[in-house]
Amino acid sequence: MNRFPAIFAAASLAIGTAGASLAQQVDPAAAQAAPRPVSIEVHADRSDGALPPVWRFFGADEPNYATMKDGRKLLTELGELKPGEVFFRAHNLLNTGDGTASFKWGSTNIYTETPDGQPVYDWTVVDRIIDTYLARGVRPYLQLGFMPEAMSSAPAGTPYQHSWRPGFDYDHIITGWAYPPKDYDKWRELNYQWTRHNIERYGREEVERWYFEVWNEANGAYWEATPEEFYKTHDYAIDGVRRALPSARVGGPDSAGAGGAFMDGFLRHVTTGTNYATGETGTPTDFLAFHAKGQPTFVDGHVRMGINTHLREVDRGFVKTTSIPALADKPVIIGESDPEGCAACPGPQNAYRNGTMYSSYTAASFARIWDLARRRNVNLEGVLSWSFEFEDQPWFAGYRQLSTNGVDLPVLNVFRLFAQLGTERLAATSDAQVPLDTIIADGVRGQADVGTIATRTADGKLAMLVWHYHDDDVPGPHARVSVTFDGLTGPAPTSAALWRVDGDNANAFTAWQKMGSPQAPDSEQYAQMEQASVMQPGTLAVVPGAGGTATATLDLPRQGVALVVLDAR
């Protein structure tokens, strides 16, 4: 799930230095094409169940970026989405090193040993990371990994820190950090001591709100041992955490994909197997986690997204995590959920990440994940976007990130739209929304997907999300969306608040292109990009009708996302 399709590496040669998303380039034919008519109906008096705020989870390979200038800025913005309820997951928190960040690497030096093998615990770096989270309204989804150098069972002569960089094969990543402990009691004690320290520093009530899971994708490229050795590593870590905090929220295994036979074995082990650490039956499990990724390809000179691959893996994961009755009601977190598998792989073939393909994909994919969870009766708690920032890298380099050099990308604004949705879903339909089974089977390859989710907010307003998505990153006609609201119990207002994310709105990428794509923007240009990234509130005219109805018309560009907030009961 973390290996980038080989076709993308070849595609970079074909694209050369073309950095722009094709759909955001001016296309006269598309601009002159007649808008596509779309009809949406929203029934304000018909509840359609709950809409849990699953979007409030984020993560990154590089934990040390969190404490750097742009990392701190972005964490502040994430924490503002839903203060105290946003969670961040990072790899490499137990790695040995000096805390210098690099691609797909980080370290805290949390554990070393004296020459005679006695443990030395140093919380300095990891405390700085968690302090940075909490000061900004973000809480840890705490990954217990990877293996400290002094504890690694890697064969003699194995390098510890990898030397991977963009363009290298993933085989370069697997070094000494990827092995199980050579002393399981020391591994358990490390996790016990760290949890006890966290309680002393942050308080029991705070730490009880965190998530604790062991390792990452132990069925894939991140683990150099058998599944059984992972189950043992998991058991000893969880036993250490629970010894320090019996009420800790523990789970896993954050498998690559739905997990296949590895996940089957894990589920059996934590329910009916013998716990390696305690000898008892089973292992405490408060939540289950797996990963799901899409698979873009390069077709006829443009990127074609693989949303169907992404959604099929989500569905397989939902089926797998509910397959054992004893665990079927447990909260489920998709611990990484993304359009493809390599956040740190930049290049022109990934230019869609800079603009509105990434943002419209995010809206369309989250909508279907909510629908799949309801279909499979899954207690979905989180959908974690493995996207953060890469400090001091070229502007708009094509990394999967939420900001570039401290300037927000359009995709971050979609999460701001999510944050305005309520948790009560209202009945709503669009005659241009691609059916769930169709998008899972075939993606969006014919007519574009113009869909909607409507909700009732906590303060009684009606918030309606609308997106215009297609798998192919090419221009297309606008959608002219006619919205009918019914079931309004009070007087309908004559206007609604309108928030947009598209080529011309809340989009620093197009602003950067218009100023000549500078790689060393001055302070004035930086301020202009920051301003361009901000969503500006607009107004949508609403026409009140008879019998608790109202109508409105909205033009939505290809790859656009919009939120309409109607102050009507």
TrEMBL record:
<keyword id="KW-0326">Glycosidase</keyword>
<dbReference type="Pfam" id="PF01229">
    <property type="entry name" value="Glyco_hydro_39"/>
</dbReference>
<protein>
    <submittedName>
        <fullName>Beta-xylosidase</fullName>
    </submittedName>
</protein>
<feature type="domain" description="Glycosyl hydrolases family 39 N-terminal catalytic">
    <location>
        <begin position="39"/>
        <end position="533"/>
    </location>
</feature>
<feature type="active site" description="Proton donor">
    <location>
        <position position="217"/>
    </location>
</feature>
<dbReference type="InterPro" id="IPR000514">
    <property type="entry name" value="Glyco_hydro_39"/>
</dbReference>
<dbReference type="GO" id="GO:0004553">
    <property type="term" value="F:hydrolase activity, hydrolyzing O-glycosyl compounds"/>
</dbReference>
<comment type="similarity">
    <text>Belongs to the glycosyl hydrolase 39 family.</text>
</comment>
<keyword id="KW-0732">Signal</keyword>
<feature type="signal peptide">
    <location>
        <begin position="1"/>
        <end position="23"/>
    </location>
</feature>
<dbReference type="InterPro" id="IPR017853">
    <property type="entry name" value="GH"/>
</dbReference>
<keyword id="KW-0378">Hydrolase</keyword>
<dbReference type="InterPro" id="IPR049166">
    <property type="entry name" value="GH39_cat"/>
</dbReference>
<dbReference type="InterPro" id="IPR051923">
    <property type="entry name" value="Glycosyl_Hydrolase_39"/>
</dbReference>
<dbReference type="GO" id="GO:0005975">
    <property type="term" value="P:carbohydrate metabolic process"/>
</dbReference>
